[in-house]
Amino acid sequence: MSNSKLGGKKMTDIVKEAKRFSCGVRLDLIPGDVLIEVSKAFAHGASKYGDDNWQQSRLNGENGPINHALKHILNYQAGIPDDESDDPKIHLTHAITNLIFEMYYELHKEDYKNESQ
């Protein structure tokens, strides 16, 4: 750490005095490269189906995110290529994306309570 002067204090003293309340979550622990891959899947879906299309209605059963996440996990494990990409990681990315959809539906289930399950 630099001992440069700032307002008559050493930088090391200012850092020791700095205070900040915890925001209650540790987003900094989520690997950035994984977030970038997932954001690519979101962008691909947005270009194919429209921004936030997946939020318009809770998908269930065969079309539901759990079913699709499991399909991608099984295809990844079996080494089955994806229809749209030669990258084997795409199955993991799509599985994570579908689990994010499911988590969103769970966190916002009141918004979808009038939809048939």
How is this fold's topology laid out?
Elements: E1 5-6, E2 9-10, H1 11-17, H2 32-49, H3 65-78, H4 90-107
Helix pairs in contact: 2-4, 3-4
Could you characterize what this model shows?
The chain has about 120 residues and is mainly alpha-helical. The protein has one domain (about 25-110). It is about 50% helix and about 5% strand. The chain has 4 helices and 2 strands, in the order ββαααα. A two-stranded antiparallel ribbon has the order 1-2. A hairpin with a 2-residue loop joins strand 1 and strand 2 (about 10). Helix 3 (about 65-80) packs antiparallel against helix 4 (about 90-105). It is extended. The protein starts with a strand and ends in a 10-residue tail after the last helix.
Distance between the termini: 57 Å
Instruction: Assign an overall shape.
Output: extended
Biggest pleated-sheet summary:
2 strands, antiparallel
Give the class from helix and strand content and strand pairing. mainly alpha
How are strands sequenced across the largest beta sheet?
1-2
Give the low-pLDDT segments: none
What is the radius of gyration?
21 Å
Percent strand equals: under 5%
Helix tally equals 4
> Roughly what is the average pLDDT, rounded to an integer?
87
Number of strands: 2
Topology pattern, helix = H, strand = E: EEHHHH
**Count of the separate structural domains:** 1
DSSP helix fraction: 40-55%
Salient structural properties:
4 helices; 117 residues; two-stranded antiparallel sheet; mainly alpha; extended
Task: Kindly summarize this structure in a few lines.
The protein is mainly α and 117 residues long. The chain is 49% helix and 3% strand. Helix 3 (65-78) runs antiparallel to helix 4.
